[in-house]
Here is the input.
Amino acid sequence: MKKEIIRKTIVLLLVFIAALIFYFISAQNTMEKEETIYASMTEPHLPVVYAAMDGRKVNPMHGYVQDLGNAVARSSITLLPENRELEIIIENYGNTVTEIQYEIRNLSMDRLVENTRLESWEQREDGIYAALPIQNLITKEEPYLLTLILDTGESKINYYTRILWSDYTYGADFIQLAEEFSRKSLNNQTARDLVSYLETDPSEDNSSLGMTTIRTSFDHLTWYGLKAEMVGDPSVTLKELDGTMGQVQVCYQIHLTDSANQVRTLDVKDYYTMRWNEQRIYMMNYSRQADEVFSEIQPEISGKRLMLGITNDQMVSSLKSPDHTYIAFETNRELWRYDQEEGELLRIFSFAGVGDEDIRSSYDSHDIKILSVRDNGDVYFLVYGYMNRGTAEGQMGVTLYHYIQNRDTVQENIFIPVEESFESLQWELNQLAYLNENEMLYLLLNQSICGIDLSSNELVVVARGLTLGEYAVSSNQQRIAWKEETNPGQNDRIHVMDLNTAQKDEIQADQGDYIQVLGFVGSDLIYGLGHQTDQWISNGRVRELPMYALYIIGTDMEVESQYQEEGIYISDVNVQDGRIHLNRMVKVSDQSYVFQNEDTIVCNEDISIDPLEGIGWYVSQDMGKRYFVQLDQTVDQPLQTREPSSYSYRDNVMAAAATVSREDRGNVIFCAYAQGRFLGSFTEFKEAVDAAYDDMGLVTDENQHILWDRINRRNAASSRNEGGSAMERHLSGFSENTLYEDGLMLIDARGCDLNQVLYFIDKGYPVIAYTENGAVRITGYDTYNITITDSSSGESYKMGLGDATTYFQSLGNDFICGKMIR
Here is the structure.
């Protein structure tokens, strides 16, 4: 009897345990189903706002459901009429707008000028028409940030543009010329009116319709004589207006008919930089970028080539799975995957649908980065920038997607909102966006290194508030190094991290020494050591941090090479193509050095990483350079093309990226722009000017104030007394780039050419120049001479412009410049 009872008890216990197991498994599955929601990507739903300028609908503004402050202010500038009443057009796409409000702030965002709610607007067939009655609280010739806020009842949506109330009325002329130029360039006959604007150079590369410049041939400008037709109306944006300088962007689609009568669709973007004078408008720079829409045609195979068509190096990339079965490739912001065994072509991701003409879907302030292609067909990739549609529509950020082969679905793993422009975000992610084999993703965001564990979606900050020039990433993005900000009394140190293993090492300088991160050659770290007492101080500012030794450290953290010589100091280290270039100096006094010679270290480390690996091109007879994806075997049958069966996203996948205020960074950052595009951030003013100079660009601070503009300078000018007085108040204590409380920015412009710093005199501020006899002031210039004022005697004299250029260059072009940025 007892045995029977025991037996029944055991059976019941086993049944109970089995039930528990079944329950937990079912519950887990239910939880997973609740966390993962399967759907198609939602269509865009946010309105688009335009400004009306001289009867034209320009400056399309896309909506943000996050507050970006002045981060995207550089996207457009809108000119106000004399009465300051700005007309806007809202294409609401079926949305009901319940409230329209606008705010006006200074560019630094520390002063609210106006906050107004509109009492009425007009709903017409093609959208909402409204007028913003901007009050007389703004100053002429000073740009402000306008934030337009639409309330749809479901959400509040922000739209951003700079506004300018100006006596310079050239903006409409610039816009008209840009649109006419774009239209006329499509036809051989009408394009003859454009010849006077070109600067054709026989040495210019005319092989690719993907990129055209002001120096290319007339035949290249006019699409090699092929039939080109604009589809619809172009989208026109005034990107810059600074005095007599204007920059305009014109975006449109064309149908291009090749010699075989096949019609191809191309996305085209024209950039114009112009200068106005009384006689005519001068074209200072022009470029045209054209990218074929791959999804608009039947995929074309030629032997082992999957043709992508007309594009350029920056718009294509590819990555193979380790066993070469799968090839993922990006072209024109679309992600595809080709299965070499099955001959199947999968369109994994694109915001734009096939044949989609919605300006919201085709908005191009985003890009795709392929992270990993697995042997099982899975693909990990990033979509970053403005989210045109989907669950994060209207946000700026980074989304990690995972195409899962066995589910045939694209899954959104995590979304990280950021508060910076697409161009700035792209500049950072081009430096670091790495996924290791343990599914840890590392990103450079907001000058911080973030790590994301894909198994838990947990975000951790590896290093916060990095200073430009004090960190480096290896070319394969598998190692990073950064200098730690130390407190007084602490030794200088750098951290080195292997992103594959998460191994973190430290290199510490001796007491009294400083340490500098100099870069990587391949995966090997380069750093330098110097004595604190050896700083090169010239005219009250640190000119250089000479190093007595340079080290190359391998992945095992062992020293592979050392460069050190008694009495020789090292500076200006630059890594290029496996070679380390440096300058050698000798010390002539406690804080002074002279250049001796250059030297080059040739490294054995193989650093060749081809950004176009797997991508090729050839020059066709009728269309010039055509790009293709290189296949491993010949394809002799039509490709099967399809899309994933579903998209999925998880609840609560949003993670906050590390945010670092500009004040926390502790130094002035200079941003270079040209042709309406961001070129990079720099801590040295000279480097920013050099980046913008050749393309007729400009330099701003992080708050979008223009600090330097190559074009907007008169042929003759003199500084004003108030400009000199403002600088005089701060010169005695000046040691580095500084923005003072009165709004004056003092800039260390050492290294800039004389011609470059004359810009500041045109704006009313003298240039401080250091000579062998002390400081002088350059207070004026004309076509032939500059005017120099002696600081001690107050006497002025003239020097020929050519002679002065040579003279100051021999002294190291040691200049201090200033500008009031309010």
Confidence is low (pLDDT under 50) at residues 1-34, 659-663. The chain has five domains: 2-37, 48-164, 171-292, 295-475+640-660, 713-820. The domain at 713-820 is CATH 3.90.70.10 (Cathepsin B; Chain A).
